[in-house]
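User: Glucose/arabinose dehydrogenase. Structure?
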Amino acid sequence: MRITNKLLLSCGVSLAILSSCSPEKSPFDVSPNDSLDPKRAEAPYPVITVPEDADMESPIWKGIDLSPQPPVMPVSANEQLKSFVLQPGYKLTPILSEPQIREPAAIQFDGNGRMYVLELRTYMQDIDANGELMPTSRISRWEDTDNDGVYETSVIFLDSLVFPRYVVPFGKNTILSMESNEDNVYKYTDTDGDGKADKKELFASGLGRSGNVEHQTSFLTWTMDNWMYSTYNSRRIRWTPDGVIQEPAGNPWGQWGVTQDNYGQTWFQDGAGGVPQGFQFPLVYGNFGVRGQYKDGFREPFSLVGLEDFQPGMREAKPDGSLNNVTGAAGNDVFRGDRLPEELQNKYFYGEPVARIVRQVNTEKLEGLSYIQNPYREAQSEFIQSTDPLFRPVDMATAPDGTMYIVDMYRGIIQQGNWTQEGSYLRTKIQQYQMDDIAGNGRIWRLTYEGMERNTEKPRMYEETPAELVRHLSNPNGWWRDQAQQLIILSQDKSVVKDLENLVNTSDYELARIHALWTLEGLNSLSVDMVRTLMKDTSPKIRAQALRASETLYKYGEKSLAEDYRTMATDADIEVALQALLSGYILNIDQVEDFIKTSINENSAKSIQLIGSQLLDKLAEQKKLAETQFEPQQQALFNQGKSIFDSYCATCHGVKGLGTPTGGGELIAPAFSGSARLMGHPEYAVKTLLHGLTGALEGTEYEGLMIAMDGNDDEYIASVVSYIRNDFGNSGSFVSPEFVAELRKETADRDGTYDFDELIGEIPKALTLQDNWKITASSTALQGVGSTKDPSYAFSYKGWKTDGAQEAGMWFQVELPKDKNLAELQFNAGGKEFPKKYKVSLSSDGKAWTEVASAEGVSGMNTVHWKAEESVRFLRIESLENGDEPWAMKQLMLFAR
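Assistant: Predicted structure:
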C-alpha cells in the first residue's frame, strides 16, 4: 500500500486509535490511549504480591514498593514532547509515529534520502513473548516528498519477515537484510519500481547466530575501509565485483548498534553491558584491554523515571527509584552532520532505554588511547532525559539533512521474555504499572538546534553519475560522504580515478582526502606511490589512513611495504606509530615479533608498551591455537595445503586468497575468501584441481588458466581443497583423500579441462528451504520462549531436536514440491546430541522407501552422500539406535544433481 496524503495517513486508517481524529488534528496529536480499554485508567489499581519463593532479604527484592499504582498511560507524540529535558538550545520534533509505523527498531537512509524503517512487530507483544518469531515484521520505506520535514509517503518494501536483524541500503532500490535464527544475508531488490522488493539473492553466508532474539547478529554496516561489520561476528565481509569475501576480526562485544566516526573507527554498542565497545582500534586488529577506558562514574545514568522497573532489581535502584547503573543500551551513532553545533560533531551517542535517556560520549585521546566520559556527569544530567516511562530510544542516525534522528519504540516492556518470566522481579514491576498492555507504537524524532536550519537539499545520488558523486566526498555531512563512496565503489567505474587522485592530492579538506583515498582502494586503483607519498604527509591523520589503506596492497603482493611499516613505527606522532605496529601485526610481516619487540624497546610511550605487549600475546595465542585448531588428521591436511598454496597457488590467487591483480586492476584468478562456489559442495574444487577449468566464471573473465593437477596424489588434492576451505575467513568441511579418490575414479574417462558451465551443471546444488516444503518429524521439542514445535528449524541456525532421548525408529522427513535428484545431505549436530546411527531413505510417493545410505553420527558436521539414481520427492532420515541424548540437527542442507 502506498500512502501519499498526510490527512489519509492520520485519519483514513480504520483503527480505534484514530477514532477521534479530525482533519484539523495533527497525527502527532493522536494518542495511543484511545486504543486502550477506556475503563483501564478508572479500574482499581492492581494489587501485586511477591512470588512465594522470593527472598525478601535478597538485594534484588529488599525495599521493593508493591503498593497499588496507577497504570502508565501512553500519550500522543506532541504530548510526549513535554516530557523531554534537553540541553539548552535543542529541540525535538516528531517526523513519524504510530499508526504509520509500529515497533521501529532501526533506520537507514538510502542514496536518495529515503528512510528505511526496521519494524519488529512481534517484539514483546505480551509479557510472555508469545508469537515472537511469527513472520509479521517488515521493512518500510518512507519519503518526505513535499520537503516539509515530515515523512508522509510510504511503501512496505519487504513484508512477512521473522524478526529481521537489520536493513542496509545497497544501491538503487536494493537492501541487505537477514532474519532471526538464519545464517544467510540476502539482497532484496525492487526490479519494477513499484517500491516492493520482488527479487531475492543470496549475498553472504556464515553470519548468523541462533538463540534469544536480543543475542543475535545486528547492524551490518559498511564502513570507511570498505568492509562490513556486524555485532557478534568475529569476522568482517566485503563486497567485490567477484563476490563477497571474508576475513577474521576481533570480537565486537556488541549487541544492538554498529557505527563509525569521521576517521573510520568503529564503535559497537553493548546491550546488557550498557556501554560502548570496540572503540580503541579498528576491529580487524583484534581486541585490546585498556584499563580505565571508561572514566570514573561513566556507568551511572541520570534518569528521571523512578519506577524501579529494571531487571537487576532493587540492588541497582537509587533512593528515588531510578536506575543507578546502566543495564541496557541499544542503537548508536557518531554524529557526523553539519546542522547541529560543532560540539556534537564526531561525538558518540547511544540510547539507554531502561533509564529513558540518550547519552552523549566525549572521548579524550592520551598517547593514542581513548578514554570516554559522559560530559554532563558533573551536572548529574544526560544529553536527553525524559519523564515519560514509555520513552525507549533504541537507535539514532545522522540524517541527510544534517540533523540527528532518534528512534523511540515507545512501549511498556523493553526487556525480552527471558527476563520477564513468572516469579521474576521485573515481571512483578511491569504488572504493577500495567506496562505489558502498551505495545505497537513507535516514534521517530528529529533533533535540531535553534538558529541552525536543517539542510533541505534532497539527495538524488541514484540519478547521478560516478563523476557527479565525487563532489559529495567533500560534503561537510558524513552521511553524504559515506553514501557517495559506497555508490562509486559499487559502480566500479574507473573513469573517476583521476578525479579522486586530484582530490587526495589537492583538497584542503582532510576528510574529503581520506574518503577519496578509500574510494580509490575500493576501486582497486590505489597505487603504491600514492600511499608512500601520503605516509610523508604533514597530517598525522592522513599518514595513519595511508598505512591502513596500504594493507590491501600488501595482501595483493606488495611485500616491500613491510619496510615502510618498520619506518613508520618510529613516527613522531604516537597514533601513526601505533597504526604501523598494528598494520605489521595483522599482515604478519617477516619477523613480526622482532618488529614489535623493537618498537617496545625503543619507544617508552605507555600506549606502545601496552598495545605492543598485547600484540605479542596474540601472536603466542595464534601459535598455540594453530596447533590445536583441528583434529590431528585435519591439521595435517591443513598444514600441507598451506605449504602448497603459499608455494604455488598464491601467485595467481593472492597471498591472502584475495586474487592477484593484473596491471589493469583485474584479477589473474578468482578470490577464495568467502567464495560461494568454493564453500558450496567440495566436489567443485576437487574436480577443478583434478581436471582444470576454463571459461568465464559467472560472467567474469580471468587472465589466468586453471590447469589440471591430476598428476598429484589424492592427499595433495585433498590438502589444498581442505586448506582453502578453512583459511581466508572460510570455515568449511575438510575433504578426505578417499573422497578425492572416488571422484578421480568416476571421472577417469574425462578428456580435457572442464568448462565452467559444464562443471557447475554436474556439481550437487544446495537446495534452499522454501515455504512449500513439507517438513515433519516423529518427535520435535519446544525450543525457547515464544517458539513452536517446528521441525523446519533444522534448516536454520536455531536447529531442531527430538523431544527427549533419541530412540530407534525416530524419523525426520522432507517432502519437496517436485522431484529432485537428491545426492547428499549435511547437518550440524552440535556437541553431544548427534544421532548414534542413522539411515537415509528416498521415496517418490512417501510410501515405498529405498535405503540409499547409512552412517554413524558424529559431533559437529555430518555428511552423507550416495549415488543419485533417480529423482524423488521424499527424503527420510531415521534413527537406528537408542541413545541417552536427544537427536539434534541445525543448518541442514540437501544437495541435488
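DSSP finds 19 helices and 37 strands in the chain. The chain has five domains: 6-449, 464-525, 527-628, 632-763, 774-896.
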